[in-house]
Amino acid sequence: MKLLRLDLQFFAGEKTEKATPRKRQEVREKGQVAKSADLNTAVVLLLVFAVLLFSGSLYQETFFQLLRESFQQYTRTDITVDSVHLLFLRILEQIAWVVAPIFLVAIFGAFIANFLQVGFLFTTEPLQMKLSKLDPIQGFKRMLSLRSLVELLKSILKIAIVGFVTFFVLWTKLGQILTLTTKSLSTTLSSLASLAVQMGLYASAALLFLAFLDYLYQRFDFEKNIRMSKQEIKEEYKKTEGDPLIKSKIKQKQREMAMKRMMQEVPKADVVITNPTHYAVALKYEDGKMDAPIVIAKGVDYIALKMKQLAKEHDVVTVENRPLARALYSQTEIGDAIPEQFFKAVAEILAYVYRLKRKI
């Protein structure tokens, strides 16, 4: 039995269950989400090279204009503190106009890639300083963990595939590259820029494919890490729904309070109809205020006995009618008016009660 109990505790503590929505929300608030950094890099690179592809002529003209001004105008300027300062600001402005669109596209790509993976999330939890991260033993364990090995293999695979793609592009353009020595400087620079953009696009597409596979792996690893044991699910249920023992005590207390309120209504009844031992139903009727008599209390066995005792103590008439008591108990609730089919039987009983009270 002891070994069986230990086995049950082991299986209860084993994390085999999917994470609950509450657990997912908690880890999300801590910044723990399924996200691939490679996907962000691939999207940013793809968008940047796409911008260079469609606006390459504009960048080429801007670059050549900067070179022409540098060799034709700036070299003739007298070197002073003010002239160097103005020259630096002008060149910086021209470079900023070239770099700004690419920079904005990169920011947009990073935002889109993160939003598609994670959605909107703002948390400072990952930025908090934790001394446990400085533990050399834990750091050494992370270096030799299975996750580190997987990351190493991923890096090698990325380098190999991206290297193969860029080499393939260069190999297909080998003839064109060899003829660049016979062409002008502007043509050579344009050809090299076009070749670099093509290599970047093909490499980005290959990296995007690898990043998608990496995202699937990161999602699988994330789901695995946030799994819960059956005991953890029970503890969470207790926190959210409350301890079943406490809930049962609260319900019991509520029943006791409801019973107490019901018993306080028995002395106000006009008549208590009994079975005579198992059922009791207290009725009240006020002429002009009620369309029909209403049930103000009912009970079986011990409660029925208490109702009859209260009725006796407060001079409430008790009438024995077995079928009527059972029918009223089963077909009505406290506060309900009696059904129409019982009007005649209840009216006869109330008439008897009123005659009895007048005699008294």
TrEMBL record:
Q: Does the keyword Transport apply?
A: yes
* Biological processes per GO annotation: bacterial-type flagellum assembly; protein secretion
Q: According to its UniProt record, what is one Pfam family this protein matches?
A: Bac_export_2
Task: Provide a GO CC annotation, any one.
Answer: plasma membrane
Q: Any idea what this protein is called?
A: Flagellar biosynthetic protein FlhB
**Which stretches are transmembrane?**
39-59, 95-123, 152-172, 192-217
- The main location is membrane
Q: How does it sit in the membrane?
A: Multi-pass membrane protein
Enumerate the InterPro entries for this protein.
Answer: FlhB, T3SS_substrate_exporter, T3SS_substrate_exporter_C
Does this UniProt record's set of keywords contain Protein transport?
yes
- Could you tell me which Gene3D superfamilies the record lists for this protein? 6.10.250.2080, secretion proteins EscU
User: Which locations, inside or outside the cell, does it occupy?
Assistant: Cell membrane
The family annotation for this protein states: Belongs to the type III secretion exporter family.
Protein origin, superkingdom = Bacteria
Q: Which key words tag this protein in UniProt? A: Bacterial flagellum biogenesis, Bacterial flagellum protein export, Cell membrane, Cell projection, Cilium, Flagellum, Membrane, Protein transport, Transmembrane, Transmembrane helix, Transport
Stated role: Required for formation of the rod structure in the basal body of the flagellar apparatus. Together with FliI and FliH, may constitute the export apparatus of flagellin.
